[in-house]
Amino acid sequence: MIRSVSTILPFLCSCALAASAAAQKLEKGAPAPEIAGANWHNAPPGEKPTLENLRGQVLLLEFWGTWCAPCVRAMPRIQQLHERYAERGVTVLALSYETPEVLEPFLKQHRYTFRSG
Q: Are 58 and 89 spatial neighbours (Cβ–Cβ below 8 Å)?
């Protein structure tokens, strides 16, 4: 029996990503498919982070949602990693399908400064 939606949704999201990767016929060692964020928060004006312009850097991709309790619990640690390693060339990209109207207040309230889209 499923105890809560917040415990099963991350599993379903990972299954969806795996199915998407299989559908794209990704191979081990092949370049990752490009990401395309419509709205970026905490990025320099006019910058739209892409895997191409981040090539050669250490990149932490965080797939999350404000509705996901495990994701929300992880965000303070993601912020700590960003603060500790940003000057050493580590880039954090936190990706969500939620609208700017949902994301922006959440990011501001918690003072998250990593890039989110």
A: yes
For the segment 67-99, what is each residue's pLDDT rounded down to a tens digit?
Answer: 999 999 999 999 999 999 999 989 999 999 899
Extract the tokens encoding 117: 């889209």
pTM above 0.90, yes or no: no
90: part of which helix (H) or strand (E)? strand 90-95
Give Cα separations from 81 to 31, 40, 54 (angstroms): 25, 19, 18
Q: How many residues are present in the chain?
A: 117
C-alpha 78/C-alpha 76 separation (Å) is: 5
> Residue 90 phi/psi, 5° resolution?
-90, 130
CB 86 within 8 A of CB 42: no
